[in-house]
Amino acid sequence: MMLYLALVALAVLLPPVLFDLAARPTIRRLGLRNVSRRPGEASLVIGGSMLATALITASILVGDSFGTSIRSFGQTFWGPVDEIFDDADPAATAVAIQAANDGSIDGVLPARFAPVSIGTVGENPKVLPELRVLEFNFEDAKRFGGDPEATGLAGVESLPAGSVVLNSTTAEELSAQVGDQLEVFGPGSSVEVTVGAIVQRTGLAGVGELIANTGDISTGLGVTGPQGSVVLVSNTGDVYAGAERTDEAIAVIESVVGADVDINDVKRGVLEEADEEAAETTELFGTIGGFSVVAGILLVINLFVMIASERKTELGTLRAVGLGRSAVRRAFSLEGAVYGIVAAVLGALLGIVVAAGVMRFAGSLSDDGNITLALSVDNTSLLTGALIGLAISQITVTFTSARVTRLNIVRALKDIAEPPAERHPIRRIALSLVMIAAGAAAFALANGTPVIAMLAPVVIAVGAIPLLSLLVGGRTAVVVGCALALAWVAAVFGVMSETMADPDISLFLLQGVLLVGLAVAIVASLDSVWVGLARRLTGGSVAPRLGLAHPLARPVRSALLVAMYGLVIFTVSFMAVINTVFAQQAPDFAAEAGGGFDLVVDSNRTNPIVAEDLNARSDVEVAYGIERGVLTYKFERTEDGVSETVDRERWSSVIPADFRPELGMVTTARFSDFSDDVAFWTAMAAGDPWIAIPEWVSHELGDELVVVTPDGGQQVVRVGAKTDFNWATNAGLYLNSALAPALTETDEMITRFLVLANRDKDEVATAINDDLSRQGADARTFLSVAEAEVSEQETFINLLQGYLALGLLIGILGLAVVLVRAVRERRRQLGMMRAVGVMPSVIRNTFVVEAAFIGIQGVVLGIGLGLLSSWQVLTQSTAFEDNLRFAVPFTWLAGLGFVALLASLAAGAWPALRAAKTSPAVALRVSG
Amino acid sequence: MNGTVNRESGNSQLHTSAEIIVSARDVHKTYRTGDLTVPALQGVDLDIHAGEFLAVVGPSGNGKSTLVNCLSGIDDIDRGEVLIDGLSIHDLSDRKRTAHRADRMGFVFQSFNLIPVLSAAENVELPLLASKTKPAVARERALDLLGRVGLAERAGHKPGELSGGEQQRVAVARALVSEPAVIWADEPTGNLDSGTAASVIELFSEVNRSGQTVVIVTHDPTIAAGADRVVEVRDGKISRDERRS
Ligand SMILES: Nc1ncnc2c1ncn2[C@@H]1O[C@H](COP(=O)(O)OP(=O)(O)OP(=O)(O)O)[C@@H](O)[C@H]1O
Ligand SMILES: [Mg+2]
What we know:
Chain A is α+β, with helices and mostly antiparallel strands. Chain A is built from 31 helices and 19 strands. Chain A has four domains: 1-79 and 268-419, no CATH class; 83-264, no CATH class; 516-592 and 786-928, no CATH class; 593-785, no CATH class.
């Protein structure tokens, strides 16, 4: 999209320039003269736009890279496995499938899964209660699917009997080394094995945590039934391409096993999910990066507006000596194109470096073993970055040069601001009315569209400014019009919560850009206020006066700088608030997952903790064993008038009969029969026909579900409540106490407990883990589970913020470039000031004040709007989860403001020192 | 319209025994750009007495501006010594030299060198603020001087909105505002019509009558003719030094 816009702009703007370059020597000479005559100036402009282009390119590349990294996670997780299905006699079925193969399948592997607990052997055994063993013929598995690398097992020579392969994650958790003895616990018995090899968690080694030869573990544990016995199928083609032949492969499999067998097309599913997630991540980073892109664009515009205004006198002279308007404009365009092209090429290359740095940094932040973050450079993205930079510079050059050449020659020569164009009142009124009408019409016609809902009223309010200015004067009109528009943009999520219920993430980009843009327009119109304020504060001493006079005399340039700064700070602050708000969610999450309980304790399948172990402890108030397993149920679904019966199997936990209802989980929604949570959990303990479902399961409160018991019986229950966050403890559905017999795939013994501690819960968790380590106790506080989840979110947001810091860095460098140019621009004045006795320190301070003026505005606007917008979005809209409590990370924001301000002062420091060193006699001789 | 300076109304107490305010001894200045060297001053000796109205004349490119810059201390010298108020100006630290300029000197440049983003009044009060005068006092003095150069009405205008002559008068006002002991003016009338030029020169004469020293570089014989003393610079040396009174 961006690429096409850039291409169109360049297709229109560049050919005439190239024509001049090739065929118009006069224009070429004029245009190129400035480049070669002022190499210093030229390199500053190129450097600045190069930075901007690098920022734009890096933003796009980073977005891509995150997407690609997530996608590759999908590739490696299942390795060669494309389909998987249960089968009572997998070896025979495998042979049959090979025979029926039409070329769509390149591997069939009979295998067995078994849920186990694994412990180390020795003084202080460590036990992981919930793991999965995968058994198959190891030699066949290494050849499975044709690409040994993809199996993840290529590095292992052979696997002798009694040896197992661990994946790296499991090995780390157990602190196990090659050669160590392990004890594998199944229901009722255990076997000892040796760690034969440790491999990366990819391919088959990602499917099972522990890999063994067929029968090595299962026979010893007595797990030999059809349960867990499966066939793995690999499609022809590599890890990725194989998924495309899923339909063909399924047809082959069905020709052997029949159409009734549920064939799970795992790879296709994972890839689809990964694609979706990759697209979402790219969009997220694209949007966040969008702020940096806009900041970069503002910098480019700024630089070129700056040269145009520096060249005013010169362009005026050329016009005065008789050069035509178009020749002057074209010469300037040519000059701009030279800068633009060099900057685009260098900037895109620098962008790769910057993106590589960001990905490295991101990689160090997220030590999640699942995803390897790596830079991927896509040529289209690279081109897009370069072309956007070039297109923006060309557009700016065209506009500014057209404006400059239209200037009155005398005013250009004397460098006087053009008087505001005296448009006829009728024309102003007409313009106003057209904009208001267009805005109103768009709003009325496309009211369901979030973008229009946000934008149309802004068009109306801004459109009303010319009309207003007839009544109250130009500045007041701008302030009033922009303030109204700003109020709307800030409030729109709350006011139009229905339309904005599920906003596209890019809408936040639009909102941010509008907020900052409008606020900057307001601030810029209040210039006399700032001067007055500064005078009152500083008593009119030289440095503040001049430091303010310069930016105020060039309102457009200053506004561009402030907007560039403000945008980036806005985004960083916005995300800081979101981060804080999420972080303080942890206790709420803990209550949703654990209610009044403090700990969840899992234990060894063979030798589990029993409730008595816990209830006998002095530091445990009460502990309940929770029976868990798979619930099978049916329900009626009506879609487009057609109703059908749907079967579902869901992991569930049973509420025990002696459950204390006041300790029940906090529900997020309750059926109207229940006045409070206690009433609901009372009914659940009593075995009344109710269940609670997690938020993400799509049933409504009161829906009837038909539970199918293993003996074929049926039982109707209704959805009585919803809970959230129970996925973090893998609790699933909550069933009433009477439903325990309906579960299948249960462990033979209860391995999970909910515990209410009567001492510090972290200490109790540690004590339980120590005392009951033999039984593989894994006690976690609900709060720590919630905090771990939240901190994963935080890491992600930190990542985004780090990514944005890039924008800030570029903003600061941009400000430095602009100020360095300002020093050159003002050399004569500086010389004069030194001559009449102004101290170097005062001159230095002038620039510091100027940088601070821009910096303070950017920081105040950015943080202020960030707070406003996050408050709106969090509390007034339905865009995020409900009941999020708004919170301000004061210290964090103060730190951000301080750093950003310091950085802008640093940006001013070098130019300031240079300015202070100006030698009066030399500077005064500079012509012009 | 008074085209010439009324010499009779010049400072009548002027005599050679008056205090020497600027004293240059064997001043050398050579410009170096790459391999090119331009010896702009080649051994200048000059004493300027307090209260003098001194005109510096000479052909273009012979070192007049360089002389003024070096003697006033805004440019460095290669050899020799310049004493101002008995202080060896080039031996002072940059800070002290700057402070001394702010206290004791005023400058008018050939091209006006006003600050475009400040109003006329703000430009004029700049030297006062540089020497830490109270803002209110500075503004009052600035308006007073703008009144004296006939620009009371234009105090709030920016330089770009003033004519060349008006800008030069603002520059003159700025040079005079701190009541400096020495006023250095490098071709202050080069861009002005004879009428405006005359009124600017009249202003210099006026302050000179009240005791301030004026050093003015000029190509205009009538202005030179009105001075107490005319110094001619040729090839970086003082080739003629005439005093009349
Ligand atoms: N920065 C510089 N670098 C090199 N040469 C210089 C520099 N400044 C002045 N000159 C040379 O020094 C000589 C004296 O210059 P100066 O400006 O003092 O002359 P002037 O007498 O004031 O001339 P005019 O009447 O034209 O203003 C000239 O030859 C000039 O070219
Ligand atoms: Mg000169």
